[in-house]
Write a structure and sequence with these properties.
48% strand, seven-stranded mixed sheet
Length: 126
């Protein structure tokens, strides 16, 4: 069964940090471009960050540049999102997504991705 499972979400104070993990099962993550998306209450899902299959290319939404870092460990079949300096506006459900395109063409488009995780909640208290 092909599956992505996110973990690491939770409640943190403003200015704090969390590290999200997305682990794949049933397929080899190293062949896939990966991304993190988030959906805040009442808002559309938006792209947060992406990483190519090799890890050589990363992209970030302007709202998280300098605070979030995406990385991957293909040997562990896992992608990470290190989130620092968290703000209340980062509150959302965070999803990881996998694309068969090793180098993502349009990383912010949901249509780019073939598999999605169930999401993990991130809450930031002010």
């Amino acid at each position: 069964q092909l599956q992505l499972v996110e973990s690491g979400g939770g409640l943190v104070q403003s200015g704090g940090s969390l590290r999200l993990a997305c682990t794949a099962s049933g397929f080899t993550l190293g062949y896939y471009g990966m991304a993190w998306f988030r959906q805040a209450p009442g808002k559309e899902r938006e792209g947060v960050s992406s990483i190519s299959s090799s890890g050589g290319t990363t992209e970030y939404a302007d709202s998280v540049k300098g605070r979030f870092t995406i990385s991957r460990d293909n040997a562990e079949n896992t992608v990470y999102l290190q989130m620092n300096s968290l703000k209340p506006e980062d509150i959302a459900i965070y999803y990881c997504a996998a694309s068969r395109h090793p180098r993502l063409n349009s990383w912010t488009s949901e249509y780019e991705y073939d598999f999605w995780g169930q999401g993990t909640q991130v809450t930031v208290s002010s």
